[in-house]
Design brief:
The protein has 612 residues and is an alpha+beta fold. It folds into 2 domains: 6-217, Beta-galactosidase, Chain A, domain 5; 227-611, Glycosyltransferase, CATH 1.50.10. Helices cover 31% and strands 21% of the residues. Strands 1, 2, 3, 4, 5, 6, 7, 8, 9, 10, 11, 12, 13 and 14 form a 14-stranded antiparallel beta sheet that branches. A 3-stranded antiparallel beta sheet has the order 25-26-27. Strands 15-16 form a two-stranded antiparallel sheet. Helix 6 (353-364) packs antiparallel against helix 7 (374-390), helix 6 (353-364) runs parallel beside helix 8 (409-425) and helix 7 (374-390) packs across helix 9. The termini are far apart.
């Protein structure tokens, strides 16, 4: 049996790694200890790369949901003879609560099977494969625990269902009757560690995970519109945070394709500076300022001194710079889509938009940066100086083109953002002569974008200077305050981009993009809200909210014809787009209400203030 569709998967997290489990009860992805470690279950990319399934024999249907305010997944299987529930959780450190959850997670996956009605024959199939499926370990049962040791990994599985060890796998069957409970605990440890893998009781794993996630959720009281969707998306972003550093990865997976059979199959288990400002906005809006503060601290430390080379645009979860890409030739890829890649060569690119992303994030955090430390002041000053010099240079753009560098409009706009925010900071980061130079360069960037970015024939700002190619990235222009959304040219651009690139609420990035890009679709809704078209913004938001899977999760893209989710999963960018757009719509709704009827501004929605 293969791994099924991308959207069939649920997402578990422990602050260091992620598990993807499908609606058939199969764990198809887990890279323990770090998001970017080699997998021990990699069926998502090749059926031979390992999985762990617990499922009924024969035909069944499934219903699943997260336990309220958690990333603990409960799947109910119903078949002709009865029903059972499987509850899955990645362990948090016992007793960890609030902002401490996930920092010292033990590397344990707990699964609990409960009989709900009748009697259901269940099959368990445990097939670990280390190093992305390259290594098959001998499985040895000792004292009721199945041990697997090979390469850099050690696994221990305690099962209340007797399992027979075969050639690299262990299988078993049991009939589960109403009231029965069977528990499974899988612990991971590095081969070099003296300790044995932890094997706490699976019930305790679930209880600790429930208590930990709910304690985190209780600290964050978003009071704007679309509250449930925002709370779920904020939890997903938190689940994609590598808690020891505070870094948020772009996605939990590698090489899930943008197009089935295509070759744009990249590794997203890293931290993009581009996502950084939007991540901060999302966390701020979702009433998570402590997480936002950790994010900024981590990035400011990871950046180091800025020299003549391009500003680093991405990092490993602990600040690594060299993320050199290579192909895993032995893997067939999701639905036969190759190559399967580890690492991402985009780390070498010049992407000038990151200058604005960081300075915009700093402006959002400005009250937390008072007094400003010397290293942060140096960083912001250096980025402003970099924008003065680099805004005239072509780059790879925010979509990370791998052919030639161009003068992308979105990169120029973000250089304007960098200079605009630097001028706002004023004497806190520069002297009067420097501030004047930044203001002059800011105005030069603006004039160039207004002149060379506009295409009179199309009636729209295009993707690059002097181009006739539309690009949804220009929807950022009103969102960073470069132009108001109701500016005549901006209104025209929004209309043209929507008409030419959108279908049934899904917006492609450019004309040949194979599918709707989720965050761009949310940007369109945000622009409509900013332009005063609140009803249309609400309608589009609700269409997009309905496009998530049954657990509220998004991949990077959605096929405009079939509705199938594509690309790495879950995708932080998509969930960030949902959160920030909910905030824009909330702000816009408050602006049109009579003054006496206005509600208190939801925590965090002031992220738009700096752009106005």
């Amino acid at each position: 049996m293969e791994s099924g569709r991308i959207s069939d998967h649920g997402f578990l997290a422990d602050g260091r790694s992620a598990v993807l489990v499908d609606r058939h009860g199969s764990v198809n992805w887990w890279c323990p200890a770090r998001f970017d470690n080699p997998s021990i279950f990699g069926r998502l990319l090749d059926d031979r790369a390992g999985h762990w399934s617990i499922r009924p024999e024969g035909d069944f249907t499934t219903e699943r949901s997260y336990l309220e305010d958690t990333l603990v997944l409960r799947t109910v299987f119903t078949c002709a003879r009865g029903s059972v529930a499987v509850t899955d959780a990645l362990a948090l450190e016992p007793g960890a609560r609030g902002h401490d959850i996930g920092r010292r997670s033990p590397g344990v996956l707990g699964r609990v099977v409960e009989g709900l009605s009748g009697e259901v024959p269940i099959r368990v199939e445990y097939r670990p494969r280390f190093a992305y499926g390259l290594v098959t370990a001998y499985l040895v049962e000792t004292g009721g625990v199945i041990e697997a040791n090979a390469g850099a990994c050690r696994l221990s599985l305690r099962s209340e269902v007797p399992l027979a060890c075969g050639d690299g796998d262990a299988t078993g069957r049991v009939t589960v009757r109403a009231g029965d409970t069977y528990r499974f605990t899988l612990g991971f440890a590095h081969a070099y560690e003296d300790r044995e893998p932890a094997l706490p009781d699976a019930d305790q794993v679930v209880a600790d995970a429930v208590a930990g996630w709910r304690s985190w959720a209780n600290l964050h009281d978003y009071r704007g519109r679309y509250r449930e969707q925002v709370r779920r998306s904020a939890m997903v972003v938190q689940g994609m945070t590598y808690q020891p550093s505070g870094a948020v990865v772009a996605a939990a997976t590698t090489s899930l394709p943008e197009l089935l059979g295509g070759d744009r199959n990249y590794d997203y288990r890293f931290v993009w500076v581009r996502d950084f400002s939007l991540t901060l906005q999302a966390l701020w809006l979702a009433a998570c300022p402590d997480e936002a503060n950790r994010q900024f601290t981590w990035v400011s430390r990871a950046m180091g001194r800025i020299g003549d080379a391009p500003v680093p645009i991405m990092y490993g979860v602990e600040g690594e710079r060299d993320l050199t890409e290579h192909a895993l030739e032995h893997l067939a890829g999701y639905a036969g889509s190759r190559p399967v890649l580890v690492g991402n060569d985009a780390w070498k690119q010049r992407q000038n938009d990151v200058l604005g992303e960081i300075l915009d994030a700093a402006w959002l955090m400005r009250h937390y940066l008072d007094p400003m430390t010397p290293d942060v002041r140096h960083l912001l000053h250096a980025l402003a100086e970099k924008a003065v010099l680099d805004w005239r240079r072509p780059d790879a753009g925010m979509w990370e083109a791998r052919d030639v560098e161009r003068h992308y409009v979105s990169s120029k706009v973000q250089c304007w953002t960098a200079l605009d925010r630097a001028v706002r900071f004023g004497p806190r980061i520069g002297d009067q002569a420097e501030i004047a130079r930044w203001a002059k360069a800011r105005d030069e960037v603006r004039a160039a974008v207004l002149s060379r970015g506009w295409n009179e024939r199309l009636g729209a700002y295009t993707g690059a200077f002097d181009s006739d190619q539309l690009d949804a990235s220009v929807l950022q222009m009103p969102l960073v305050g470069f132009l108001p959304a109701d500016d005549p040219r901006m209104r025209s651009t929004i209309r043209v981009v929507e008409r030419e690139l959108s279908h049934d609420g899904l917006l492609r990035r450019w004309d040949e993009d194979p599918a709707g890009f989720v965050i761009c679709s949310f940007w369109l809704a945000a622009c409509l809200a900013e332009a005063g078209e609140l009803d249309r913004a609400d309608q589009l938001f609700e269409q997009l909210a309905a496009r998530s899977n049954d657990l509220g999760l998004y991949a990077e893209q959605i096929d405009q014809a079939t509705g199938e989710q594509l690309g790495n999963f879950p995708q932080a960018f998509s969930h960030i787009g949902l959160i920030t757009t909910a905030g824009r719509i909330t702000d816009a709704a408050e602006r049109v209400r009579p003054a006496g009827d206005r509600q208190p501004v939801p925590v965090g929605t002031g992220f738009t203030e700096g752009a106005r």
